Amino acid sequence: SLPSRTKGPFPTTIHGGATSNRLLTIRCGPRDNRGPLVKGRVLSSEAIQAVQALKRAQRSPNPPDVSRSLSRLIKADLLATLRELLRQGHCDLALKVFSTVRSESWYKTDLGLYADLVQALANNRMAEDIDRLIGEMEMEDGVIDLGDKKGLSRLIKALIAAERRESTVRMYGVMKRSGWGCIGSGVEVDEYVAKVLSKGLRRFGERDVAREVDLALESYSNACLGRVGV
């Protein structure tokens, strides 16, 4: 099927014979529960076919192995397939695609993608899968890109919103192994990330861990002030 397109504006007659321009949304392709694609989300024909094949396989009494077909997709199409499945609420299928993504040679831990997954899983009440997801992150290369402050803060907020106490603590452990809060590591302790994490940990009753986060921020701030004063 083809992605939805918005055409217009089209003149529409209103009271008094005047006309008003409005946008008309046209949906193309089979009628399912999928909403129209928004601006900026354009799927290639390969990604659309992959989404449809996965959904057909899920409905089949003898589902075929689609992993080989997924591995043939280029990076952009594979990620687009994953995000489209998340958008449609097919989290179980999205996790299968994510497994293929993680097996690709180009893959590096993407905090923003993890945040998207956690949010979708939480919306579908798949709490155990959230914990499993963070556990898999721990077993990847052991470090994350702490320079991705937006992705990191989104992931932490998603875990807290999903009420995943243990996974939030484990996420902090991954951050520490990546150099966060470690003196001499040269890694920035972002104030916003630290405050979001500390607040969430206190909410979960993890006061000792929260104090550790607060001290890391304080030490980093003092070190920065010391450098400025030199």
Automatic annotation (TrEMBL):
Domain of life: Eukaryota
One biological process term in Gene Ontology: Group II intron splicing
Gene3D superfamilies named among the record's database cross-references: Tetratricopeptide repeat domain
GO terms assigned for molecular function: RNA binding
Cross-referenced InterPro entries: THA8-like (IPR044190), TPR-like_helical_dom_sf (IPR011990)
Name of this chain's protein: Uncharacterized protein
